[in-house]
Amino acid sequence: MRLKPSVVLRLYSLCGILIQGSQGQFPLTQNVTVIEGETATLTCRVDQNDNTSLQWSNPAQQTLYFDDKKALRDNRIELLRASWHELTIRVTDVSLSDEGQYTCSLFTMPVKTSKAFLTVLGVPESPQITGFVSPVMEGDRMELTCKTSGSKPAADIRWFKNDKEVKDVKYLKEEDANRKTFTVSSTMNFKADRSDDGAVVSCRVDHESLHSTPQIAMQVLEIHYIPSVKIIPSTLWPEEGQSITLICESKGKPLPDPVLWTKDGGELPDPERMIVNGRELNINFLNKTDNGTYRCEAENSIGLNSAEYVLIIHDPNALAGQAGPDHALIGGIVAVVVFVTLCSIILLGRYLARHKGTYLTNEAKGAEDAPDADTAIINAEGSQVNAEEKKEYFI
Questions:
Q1: φ, ψ for residue 34 (rounded to 5)?
Q2: Which one of 92, 186, 226, 384 has the fewest beta carbons within 10 angstroms of its own beta carbon?
Q3: Strands 223-233 and 136-137
Q4: Positive or negative, the Cα torsion across 128, 130, 133, 137?
Q5: CA 117, CA 119: separation in Å to the nearest integer?
Q6: How far apart are CA 193 and CA 202, in angstroms?
Q7: CA 118 – CA 294 distance, rounded (Å)
């Protein structure tokens, strides 16, 4: 039988529509990430569907739902929406074993599939800090370890001391027995110092399953150390007749016992004027006999330490005298002036004596032919050739 050309064209058009519709039918899915114990929703959509069935299968290729019919007996899996364009199911109380690749199938010829990977996050357990023994002696080494298990992927651990991050730590990651989760630990090693007493050391666990709310374990450090001692005077210029208070400032842990005051290596010589009140030493009506070295000792169960203060009492009258003219300085200046004056007189005298000798010599040299002294000098000046030979000098 021979078909008419118009019929053939209609058949070709119908096949083209069928092929185009078949190519437009393709299932669409998305990967899903969920925290262990929470709920996962898997959705499969088809934009163009000519009443073709949809099916969800688990990673073991077991059918979960075929259209709106449940195939696997698992009370955690339920149907949310079923139509020719969408098949959505929900898995409650998700466990780590639910992780894997799920398949949505569209039963065309051939069957078209789309994959959706379900990722299950393992929540890390609350961290614990171990290795702390209280109290710790100053100078001892401390090694603190923070550990958490059950994280997937492996959690991150960070250390802080009084909110300041400590970088020099060791990190270790180990796979748990289920081969799905991890146990991670971090160790911080440092030398105990008195400045660490009362410091808060914290271990912080960060993980994507914690919704930006880290898990934190904290430990307050207790460091025992020998007392530090310092003496602080109430005045820096004590004068006779006044009072002074010496404060013994001591810090240590455990708290030091009441301090012990001594003077020049012995007991306080005048208990009536030298009164000890706790860590303070009060000395009333100061006088020169109070000069000396005062020592304060503080002791606790760790050890003993001390500090010294040299007390010098000043005379207010002497201070007033120092404010007037310095007579010693004035006397020294006068002596120098007198010495310089005497030296000048002596030099002047020697100078005059030398010139007097020259005059007498010249007068004698010209006296042979002169009636008087003036004429003798004039005659002498006229003969300068041998003048140097006749000069006389007086020393």
A1: -140, 150
A2: 384
A3: parallel
A4: negative
A5: 6
A6: 17
A7: 79
